[in-house]
């Protein structure tokens, strides 16, 4: 079947859409990419989302309006994906929506909230929609993250060397796949979240990010500020663990700079080093030899240079080497989750999320036609192969 995955990360840049043809072959999932596209949020909706994110106060009216408008813009993006990527032949939509809150205290996740009403997507496309993909893992005692660990474990299993997958979104997360022990996955800390907040701060809101790492490259690391940031207790929590803008948001940066900020180049260089150090420190105990990096942060040369230095002798590669486009990896992940849910297969790895059991992910919103689910799969897949697309 052909499934579209829709996602929007913590940077709230917009909507990533990926289409793929999936098949189950015993314990193997076959994924044939059909392409991907990115659709920016409207400027008005992006401002509304960012204005409602923690620690901002908001109202139920605003939550309802944002939920509806995200659903509508996801619906328009899905229509484009069905038309441009799937040749009008898609069978299912899987939508992550937009995370607006992850309720964490004392290293325990109590709840998670993704907005983007799926009924709008089902109505616009005429297809069933799988959504709310994190809540079942949380209800089973898990962190609800990183969901990317499912794709990472399937994709990296059976490799000769110990490998890790690294996603550099607003938050950085890693998955380590080992032959001699269960996999492990967790959020390491901020990737683009603080860098983007700093870019907005030094530009007076005119820039949303440090394009090509130009500002960071113009400065030097401030060791005093770096030590202050590295004192954050989150980094010393054991996995599984998860975090988000609730901790590493713009207010976190403001508090860190309350006694004075270094020059803008030094500030961005220090935040680049913070991400490089915390990722490398998180992976060091696992002695990985290869790190497959994806996400928006891979387009920041300053960050990738420092990661390469800190991760050495492990080499950095990309999911593209395995046939999966780095820019669309998360959207393909959510397409995979929707496909597995449709076949009654769990969508998380308890060893990675900390859940008591592997739960089937999400809920299904029907399209205009009655739901006709297939018989649940009798074999749980443990491998994924990326095939050449066959249209």
Automatic annotation (TrEMBL):
GO molecular function list: ATP binding; kinase activity; phosphotransferase activity, alcohol group as acceptor
Enzyme class: transferase
GO biological process: 1,6-anhydro-N-acetyl-beta-muramic acid catabolic process; amino sugar metabolic process; peptidoglycan turnover
Superkingdom field: Bacteria
Catalytic activity as recorded in UniProt: 1,6-anhydro-N-acetyl-beta-muramate + ATP + H2O = N-acetyl-D-muramate 6-phosphate + ADP + H(+)
Matches recorded under Gene3D superfamilies: 3.30.420.40
Residues involved in ATP binding: 9-16
Pfam family, one: AnmK
EC number, UniProt record: 2.7.1.170
InterPro entries noted in UniProt: Anhydro_N_Ac-Mur_kinase, ATPase_NBD
Pathway: Cell wall biogenesis; peptidoglycan recycling; Amino-sugar metabolism; 1,6-anhydro-N-acetylmuramate degradation
Keyword terms: ATP-binding, Carbohydrate metabolism, Kinase, Nucleotide-binding, Transferase
Family per record: Belongs to the anhydro-N-acetylmuramic acid kinase family.
Function in brief: Catalyzes the specific phosphorylation of 1,6-anhydro-N-acetylmuramic acid (anhMurNAc) with the simultaneous cleavage of the 1,6-anhydro ring, generating MurNAc-6-P. Is required for the utilization of anhMurNAc either imported from the medium or derived from its own cell wall murein, and thus plays a role in cell wall recycling.
Protein name listed in UniProt: Anhydro-N-acetylmuramic acid kinase
Organism whose genome encodes this protein: Lipingzhangella halophila
